[in-house]
Design goal:
single chain; 20 helices; globular
């Protein structure tokens, strides 16, 4: 019954949004992985153009879309339905996590809080990778919980593999295997067992990522997960704070004066009949150097950007215009301006209370992961869309508070659970 309730709660509102947004699912708010997927299906090349491999994005979401486009074509319905299914699976994983941690009631409440998140109901069905991030992160947390409980090397290896898959979806998670290795190994005795467990987590993640990195070395020219350090530079220069403070996003930050055309622009110019070649690896090194120089020369500005990133990550309401432009009228605007902030404020309050009620090892894991995501925002940039895939952790903590309050209320009203039937 719980599985059916959670599945329907996840699917029905998203199917309504799929129908309402059918004309924009593949035309607005679209991740560049859509272009990579289209090129892969048509030509066998993972990049912007046939015959020109690229590492200018993380591959996981592009592969996911290509798996849909190959049999169904560039179909909004296929994307909407598939991503609705991903949201359902995410909610079911949260149900399992909560049930394992405490009870079916905690799991059910946590899954409903996760899947009825107003921002995700709208965002999940659009062509952005965060819906897949949420699924992988939920699977990762479930495996980390299992590995903590059974202390097995197999559990550690499974956690590491899924951690590597998460990195293929989001390069900002590149150090997460080290964090989880420390989490799973610190209490193990003798110390050699802990070191072995940590090594298994990290090595398993490396094994999962290695084929993609090797592909980039052979086809693109450098050992890397993504060559898109231009995005990191856009989040770390003297113009960034002003643009973000005005409601813009890092895409609106002025380009590097005299800088080379970035891979997507080069592809567009080539399609316009102006063949343009770029060295992605050289660009990666150039923008990485500029970021390091910015940090070194402007520490106060970076500190200011860090505070801004944390605020933008944890704000109850998105402050980025481009995230809000698709929800500009009627019920969608009301949900964005009123329902979503109220929902998140309540979730924050309940999650803080839940920290004191959840099992300590899970509370520590949740805090560790949320702290990691916050640190990633400090280094890169913060936005609600980068926090939302992690909000299931808040929902799990909040579920402990809600179920405790419900049980306390029932006891105060004199409720007594029925006596078990006599055994025969």
């Amino acid at each position: 019954m719980a599985v059916a309730v959670v599945s329907l709660a996840a699917a029905l509102p998203r199917l309504v949004v799929v129908n309402r947004e059918r004309h924009t699912i593949l035309t607005a708010f679209v991740d560049k992985s859509d272009r990579f997927a289209t090129t892969l299906v048509k030509s066998g090349t993972f990049g912007y153009l046939p015959g020109r491999p690229s590492a200018n994005t993380q591959p996981l979401y592009g592969w996911f879309l290509a798996g849909l486009y190959w049999p169904f074509g560039h179909s909004w319905l296929a994307v909407g339905l598939a991503q609705t299914l991903v949201a359902v699976l995410t909610a079911l994983l949260v149900l399992e996590i909560g049930t394992r941690l405490r009870s079916l009631g905690v799991g059910l409440v946590a899954a409903l809080l996760t899947t009825l998140h107003p921002y995700l109901v709208w965002h999940d069905v659009h062509a952005n990778r965060e819906v897949l991030d949420g699924l992988v992160l939920a699977a990762l947390v479930l495996l980390a919980v299992l590995a903590w409980e059974d202390r097995s090397l197999l559990g550690a290896a499974a956690t590491g593999v899924v951690c590597g898959i998460a990195i293929l979806g989001n390069a900002r998670l590149v150090l997460l295997p080290v964090v989880l290795a420390g989490y799973l190994s610190w209490r193990l005795r003798p110390p050699g067992r802990g070191l072995l467990t940590a090594a298994v987590v990290v090595l398993a993640a490396v094994v999962a990522v290695a084929p993609w990195v090797a592909r980039n070395r052979v086809q693109v020219g450098c050992l890397t997960i993504t060559t898109d350090t231009r995005a990191l530079w856009k989040a770390n220069n003297v113009s960034t704070y002003r643009v973000l403070a005005q409601g813009g996003w890092i895409d609106d930050v002025p380009n590097l004066p005299g800088g080379p055309p970035w891979p997507e622009l080069a592809a567009d110019l080539t399609l316009e009949g102006k063949p343009t070649h770029v060295d992605e690896c050289a660009q990666m090194r150039l923008y990485r150097h500029l970021v390091i120089e910015f940090w070194r020369q402007h520490p106060r500005e970076k500190l200011r950007l860090s505070g801004q990133a944390v605020r933008m990550l944890w704000t109850p309401k998105s402050s980025v215009r481009s995230d809000n432009s698709g929800q500009g009228s009627g019920l969608a605007r009301t949900a964005r301006d009123t329902v979503e902030p109220a929902y998140m404020i309540l979730l924050y309050v309940l999650a803080i209370a839940g920290l004191f009620l959840a099992p300590r090892y899970f509370a520590a894991l949740a805090l560790l992961l949320l702290a990691y995501n916050t640190l990633a925002a400090v280094i890169f940039a913060g936005a609600v869309r980068y926090r939302a895939p992690w909000d299931f952790l808040l929902a799990l903590l909040a579920a402990f508070a809600l179920t405790a309050a419900w049980n306390a209320a029932r006891r105060r009203l004199g409720y007594r659970p029925p006596a078990p039937a006599p055994s025969r």
